[in-house]
């Protein structure tokens, strides 16, 4: 039996523990609040997307989904030519710059991206038109191509602003803008797809208009003067050109499959495949939400050569992403029925496979980002080039032999291949004392 002295000691220990927890919360209150806002904002985006999906499924045919999915597949191809991967340069150097340098760099990078990106958008549209004519593509070029490419151009500017807000730890602003963006997206779905029955055109017009509104807003918030610091622009391009090419090669991991499947000439099956891609994208969006929440901490730990902190971030983010996938696998038919209003249950078999890609893609992204954050952007290009050659061969073989199911498995295996290659490069860097050595800091 505990004596009064024992009880007093226990109570004192309990009080001390409570005080320690209280002090820990107070010390990290701001960080905890920011993380919760970042995460909640992104989860709201996922929830809104899930709620919209039955509505879209009720008003869009399989052919509509095929058209939308086909044009969406070009996003990863054109993105590097419009963003120039400049946000990676900004994020890498943010914590080493003083505030005036940050403002000048932000102004220069976003202005450069906005001006040059406009010209490259026009060139890419011209190139796509030539491809359509040569290959006799069955889908209409106008207005779908203009809406799809214009949306990506505007998203690049908007995404840069989101990165800037996260680096500044302005979680409340991030939350408000993110939620408003998604609510406005709902409004245009209800107006253009449901009320006006605009089908694929209505859906793509709505996305373009929303991104136009927020793209202009983000540009005005980031660009304060119409002048470029050419030294910063030159240094950024020197760092980013390997990342641009590396990002371009990402298209062959996710997007190239749809290009090949269009040649199969089965629009209905391509529509089902696109529905599955859309469902799987919510898992990817959740995964990206986790990554975005912890991204500033990731770069900070790499810059400070904090291996323990970096490993903690990597393990935490990847563990959090597995649970939704396991839940979906156990309830796939029910979930697909609800999300597609029971119109596209035939897409379930594709979706079951594709959800695994959110895990392999997340692991691959984390490993590749580690290589880039350590300052080896050119090595990242070699890594991606090696992987893309193997993936192109894999996709062609899988689609020729197994059709749409082969393409679905290809999405999973593509990033598994990249993960193995990335691990090999990181191991080589570490063994040759290039990274994570005592006393070293990434510049």
From TrEMBL:
It holds the Pfam family Polysacc_synt. The keyword Cell membrane applies. It is found in: Cell membrane. InterPro entries: Poly_Biosynth_Transport, Polysacc_synth. GO terms for cellular component: plasma membrane. Keywords: Cell membrane, Membrane, Transmembrane, Transmembrane helix. The chain crosses the membrane at residues 35-56, 68-90, 110-132, 144-163, 175-194, 200-219, 239-261, 267-288, 309-330, 350-373, 385-406, 412-431. It is a multi-pass membrane protein. This is Polysaccharide biosynthesis protein C-terminal domain-containing protein.
């Amino acid at each position: 039996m505990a004596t009064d002295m024992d009880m007093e000691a226990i109570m004192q220990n309990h009080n001390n523990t409570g005080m320690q927890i209280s002090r820990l919360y107070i010390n990290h209150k701001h960080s905890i609040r920011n993380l919760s806002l970042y995460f909640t904002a992104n989860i709201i985006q996922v929830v809104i997307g899930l709620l919209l999906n039955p509505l879209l499924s009720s008003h869009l045919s399989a052919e509509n989904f095929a058209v939308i999915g086909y044009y969406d597949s070009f996003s990863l191809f054109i993105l590097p030519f419009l963003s120039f991967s400049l946000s990676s340069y900004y994020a890498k150097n943010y914590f080493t710059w003083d505030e005036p340098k940050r403002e000048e760099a932000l102004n220069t990078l976003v202005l450069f991206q906005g001006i040059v990106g406009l010209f490259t958008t026009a060139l890419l549209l011209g190139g796509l038109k030539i491809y359509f004519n040569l290959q006799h593509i069955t889908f209409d070029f106008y207005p779908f191509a203009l809406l799809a490419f214009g949306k990506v151009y505007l998203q690049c500017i908007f995404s840069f602003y989101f990165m800037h807000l996260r680096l500044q730890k302005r979680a409340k602003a991030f939350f408000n803008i993110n939620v408003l963006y998604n609510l406005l997206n709902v409004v245009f779905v209800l107006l253009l797809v449901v009320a006006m029955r605009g089908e694929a055109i209505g859906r793509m017009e709505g996305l373009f208009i929303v991104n136009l509104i927020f793209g202009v807003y983000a540009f005005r918030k980031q660009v304060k003067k119409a002048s470029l610091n050419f030294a910063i622009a030159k240094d950024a391009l020197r760092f980013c050109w390997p990342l641009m090419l590396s990002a371009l090669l990402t298209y062959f991991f996710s997007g190239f499959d749809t290009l090949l499947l269009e040649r199969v000439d089965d629009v209905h099956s391509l529509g089902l495949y696109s529905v599955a891609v859309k469902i799987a994208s919510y898992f990817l969006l959740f995964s990206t939400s986790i990554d975005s929440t912890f991204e500033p901490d990731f770069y900070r730990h790499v810059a400070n050569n904090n291996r323990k902190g970096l490993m903690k971030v990597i393990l935490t983010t990847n563990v959090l992403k597995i649970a939704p996938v396991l839940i979906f696998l156990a309830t796939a038919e029910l979930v697909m029925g609800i999300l597609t209003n029971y119109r596209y249950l035939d897409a379930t078999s594709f979706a079951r496979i594709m959800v695994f890609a959110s895990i392999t893609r997340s692991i691959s992204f984390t490993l590749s980002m580690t290589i880039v954050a350590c300052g080896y952007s050119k090595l990242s290009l070699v890594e991606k080039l090696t992987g893309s050659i193997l993936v192109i061969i894999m996709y062609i073989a899988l689609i020729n032999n197994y059709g749409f199911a082969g393409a679905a498995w290809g999405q999973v295996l593509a990033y598994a291949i990249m993960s193995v290659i990335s691990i090999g490069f990181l191991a080589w860097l570490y063994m040759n004392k290039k990274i994570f050595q005592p006393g070293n800091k990434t510049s």
